[in-house]
Amino acid sequence: MTLHALLDLAAERYPDRVAVEDPDRACISYRELARLSDRLRDRLRHAGVRPGDRVGLYARKSIDGVAAIFGILKAGAAYVPVDPDAPTARCAYILDDCAVRAIICDHDLEPGLRHELRSASHTPRLLLLAESHTVLPLAALLDEEV
Fold it and tell me: What is the value of pTM for the model shown?
């Protein structure tokens, strides 16, 4: 059974139980996590991500990061996490070397990453996680028009 299938099973069996809790005490249920990851899967497919592709994850640890991992896996892609505390040039090199099709990126990390990717061998699609005080940044991104 795949990791994302286990999430869907947990969402079916324990929909209202807490699946992930952030250090700041924000939390998300299994049902909400499964739905958020499904929405990201659909957005990634719309952005041209196909099974076997790689998707970069350039974001701080959060509920959104967990949902992103599941959404990427549900799209049939592999995730390439890079450490946002590492030098931006190194992160950009890794993402370019892995030929990621898209990058899920914290909004405040985007300018430096975009600068470092200017000489990349290809241009991946950037999906920016903007700060939101009412909903999770990933949910806000997915609510935007495509």
Answer: 0.93
